[in-house]
What we know:
Elements: H1 12-31, H2 36-43, H3 47-55, H4 62-72, H5 76-93
Helix pairs in contact: 1-5, 2-3
Amino acid sequence: MSTILYISPVRKYDSTRNGCFLSLLRQVRQEAGLTQAKLAGLLGKPQSFVSKYESGERRLDVLELREICVAAGISLESFIIRLEGSLDSAMAIGRYPGFDM
Length: 101
């Protein structure tokens, strides 16, 4: 019996949102003066954990995002406000930060 694998196409809007999210994750870490290894240490995770979520290879749940924000010295609320601003700006000017089509 063969298995059929269906991969749904990523819509440009979804890619834009994800690119903004990933860019902001890196930006927050860098603004906190943290390397991937230092942030991972604060989280009790390996450096590859940070690398994988920053590259989009791994997704985060909201509790993990909150832990990352706390470690970087930013509230989850502030992160979301910045993300909303980034999404609004990207959509308004037609740019897609952190994502190359």
